[in-house]
Amino acid sequence: MNTRSFSSFFFITIFYLCLVSRIEARPLSFEEFLRCANIALPRSNVLTINVLNSGAKGDGITDDSKAFSQAWKQACSSSQEVNLVIPNKVFLLKPVTFSGSCKSKITIQISGDIVASETTSDYAKSPTHWLTFNGVTNLVIEGGGTIDGRGSIWWKNSCKVDKSKPCTNAPTALTFESCTNLVVKNIKVINSQQIHLTFHSCKNVVASGLTVTAPASSPNTDGVHISSSQNVTISSTTIATGDDCISIVTGSTTIHATGITCGPGHGISIGSLGEKGSPALVQNVVVDGANFTGSSNGVRIKTWEGGSGTASNIIFRNIHMHNVANPIIIDQDYCDRAVQSCSQSQGAVLIQNVLYENIFGTSASKNAVTFECATSSSCKGIQLHNINLTSQNGGKSSASCINVHPQNTAPVSPSCPASLFSDLGFLIEIM
Fold first, then answer.
1. What is 245-274 written as a DSSP string?
2. Is 385 among the catalytic positions?
3. pLDDT in tens, 395-429
4. pTM of the predicted model as reported, rounded to 2 decimal places
5. Which of 64, 113, 222, 243 is catalytic?
6. Which of 129, 266, 322, 405 is catalytic?
7. Is-contact 233 205, C-beta < 8 A?
8. Sequence-separated (6 or more) residues with CB below 8 Å from residue 257
């Protein structure tokens, strides 16, 4: 049999096997046939754009913002799929916004380092953003490179570090706003001026293989901040910063975090919610698989007094704590007292249907479980199953429970007392 005949025979045979293995009684399209036979579809022509060809110097000194904007403009206007290359050099950028909508899929390949301007006056027109992607669909950012906010100048001027300074905002290093079908993978984001990555009003987001780091003393440097976004998955990510590793705030639904390493930092937080009486909505959040080391919190739900709305259908499972100050915490008396005064207010965000399951490890404080609910009706459907948290020093651990009667499925240690004394903040010690 000659080569041509063999090829024809091979394709006919594979096609027949695909046909007989399918349940649907309809012909296969050519694309379905190739997928069935595990044969890669040939890619259409991909346009490669290198920022160096748009005038970027990559010397870490010259402002390359204009060149990056020009490269993006070319990529966004292309009807071909685009691979936008940021090679292995150091690129200094002032605040830049990369706006959509674009005509085709864009993959940004970051092999080098992108570093922020340290001149604070450069941010006068953009005080809360450094790098922003706005209104972009079908965007991939990858490549193993580093985005460095060089935030130390901002940290030392924070009111949380220098109490004589006024409390002001600082830029978020990397903001995605109103983006759809977004993939961010295998990059490093470090030393942000304030928050490292924000997903705001985004849909269908996959973030994986990220490394997000800043000193434990750096103020307000959340790792990943999610607001008003739907269908967000964060996986295989390491976060060590001076604030929440992951924060999920109002308007966010269907959030899944797995394979998270957190610490130092403030843990994984839902909230804060309900500030200044505002309505909250967070639902369908799953944290499944996380390791916390030396963080000030583990899994936390925090709401302001006087808020409204709901945080519901939340699962924290398969989690290990090592020397964590507050491994499990609901705080309905939250207030950032470092930046404002706090007063008693009526009302509370309803926290409903929360499951804690398969959580083990050690607590750096006596109370390994803290539930501080605002009223007897503001925390409902709280369940704990298979919990074992001991004191880091080998002593007893406790549960502090106010206005809550969780349902426990043994073994749970420590656990809230199954009595009305829990409304008085009764502490039960577990041997």
1. SEEE-TTEEEEEEEEEEE-SSS-EEEEEE-
2. no
3. 889 999 999 999 999 899 999 976 443 333 333 33
4. 0.86
5. 243
6. 266
7. yes
8. 233, 234, 235, 246, 268, 286, 287, 288, 290
